[in-house]
Design the sequence.
């Protein structure tokens, strides 16, 4: 992350690829696990807002895209 740390994150938007864009599939569990590695644990109790939008595909055969919004003093 350029010029910040995980404590400066205020919002995350995730676009996990799922077979049916109207339903959360296994990618949502993967996303929740990844979120837990960086946020909401004893070493970093910070919990930024997050939103997930399931999609049917992403460019380059990616399985998830994440937008991170941070603030700086």
Sequence:
């Amino acid at each position: 992350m350029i010029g910040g740390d995980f404590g400066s994150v205020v919002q995350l938007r995730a676009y996990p690829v799922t077979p049916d864009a109207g339903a959360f599939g296994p990618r949502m569990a993967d996303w929740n696990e990844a979120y837990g590695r960086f946020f909401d644990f004893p070493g970093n109790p910070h919990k930024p807002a997050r939103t997930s939008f399931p999609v049917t595909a992403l460019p380059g055969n990616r399985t998830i895209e994440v937008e991170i919004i941070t603030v700086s003093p």
